[in-house]
Design brief:
Layout lengths: L6 H4 L4 E5 L3 E5 L8 E6 L11 H22 L3 E5 L9 E7 L20 H8 L2 H15 L2
Antiparallel strand pairs: 1-2, 2-3, 3-5, 4-5
Helix pairs in contact: 2-4
């Protein structure tokens, strides 16, 4: 895949929360998972090993910081991290707040549902996203000016 054909080169890939020189944070619209974020490398690279050591460390520092802030604000049961890149071969990390009540827990968000969705609990998480987004943007701006 070339940068000209890459969806993450042509658009943010979701609601833009923060953008730096090297990477950005977006909130994805994933049905049933309101706190589903992606740390996206701005330059078109397919794999983590395509980055220099310094850039790879910066990317992972950003992923860890997004996880840390999500845990502080949302107190999820677990945070899932994934960097599959099978559908979009552009380096990005999924950072997903998971709850023991969510429809797929403990399976992956891409697996089959384990139970019906709980709209009230999903709405309660969604109600915290504006605050979470502000904390995430502030923290990433501080770490990566």
């Amino acid at each position: 895949m070339t940068a000209q054909a890459c969806v993450l080169c042509m658009q943010d890939g979701g609601a833009l929360i923060w953008r730096g020189d090297k990477l950005r944070l977006i909130r994805a619209a994933e049905e049933g998972f309101p706190a589903f974020y992606r740390v996206v490398w701005n330059e078109h690279v397919a794999e983590l090993s395509d980055l220099s050591d310094a850039d790879r460390n910066l990317c992972m520092q950003a992923v860890a910081e997004v996880e840390r802030v999500m845990r502080q604000v949302l107190a999820p049961t677990k945070i899932n991290l994934a960097a599959l890149g099978n559908m979009v071969a552009h380096l990005h990390w999924h950072v997903i707040a998971r709850y023991d009540w969510d429809s797929h827990f403990p399976a992956a968000v891409w697996a089959s549902a384990q139970r019906a969705r709980d709209a009230d609990k999903e709405s309660a998480v969604a109600a915290q996203l504006e605050l979470l987004d502000a904390h995430l943007a502030q923290r990433l701006s501080t770490l990566f000016p």
